[in-house]
Amino acid sequence: MRNEKGFTLIELVVVIVILGILAAVAAPKFTNMQVEARVAAMKGLHGSVQAATSLVHSKALVANQIGTTGIVTMEGGQQVHLAYGYPNHFNNGIPAALNMDGFIFTYENPADGERRGKFTKHGSPSACAVYYYPALGSSRPAPRIENELWLQLQFPGFLKRMHTRAGNFMKRSSMRHATARNWL
If I label 121, which of 7, 36, 38, 79 is the partner at 20 to 30 A Cα–Cα? Predict the structure, then answer.
C-alpha cells in the first residue's frame, strides 16, 4: 500500500466553492465603501456649511449687519457678503466663509426660481451635492441647507431599490432635491 499525500479532487472543488462564496459576499462590501466615503464627505460638508453659516450670522449680529445686504470680515481677513445677516449664495458669500478644499461651488438658478448655491465634491457624481438656499427676508428669515443624500441616510437602500426599478426613478415631487441619478 502506498502512502500518498495530497488533496482529492472533491476537497479542491469544495475549497474553490467556499472561496467563490466568500468573494461574492466580500466584493459588494468593498464597492460600497465608495458610497460610504461620498456619504461621509457630504455629511461633513453639510456640517461645515451649517457651522460657517452660524459663525457668520453671529458676526453679523455683533456688527449690526442684518439688513438686506452687508459685509463681515472673518478672522483671516476674508470678507463675506451677507443677505439678511446670513452669507449670500454667491461666490463672495458662503464659499468665502468655508475652506473648500476638494469641493466645487456653483451658483444655480433653476427653472423653479429657487436660487441656490451648490457644493459638489471633485470627481463625484453631480447628484452628490449640498445645496445652500439664502435667507430671503420675511419669507425665509434663515438660510436652508439641504443634502441630496438625506434619502440615503434616512432610508438605507432606498435609492438602490428605486434605481433598480427604473432608470429615471425620481421625478420632481414632494421630495424635492432627492434626485439621485448618477449616484450609484
Answer: 79
Q: pLDDT by residue (tens digit) across 152-167?
A: 555 555 445 444 443 3
Q: Residue 74 CA to chain centroid, in angstroms?
A: 25
Which residues, other chains included, contact 183 with Cβ-Cβ below 8 Å and sequence gap of 6+? Answer: 35, 125, 127, 128, 148, 152, 159, 163
Query: Judging by DSSP bridges, how do beta strands 79-83 and 70-73 pair with one another?
Result: antiparallel
**pTM higher than 0.85:** no
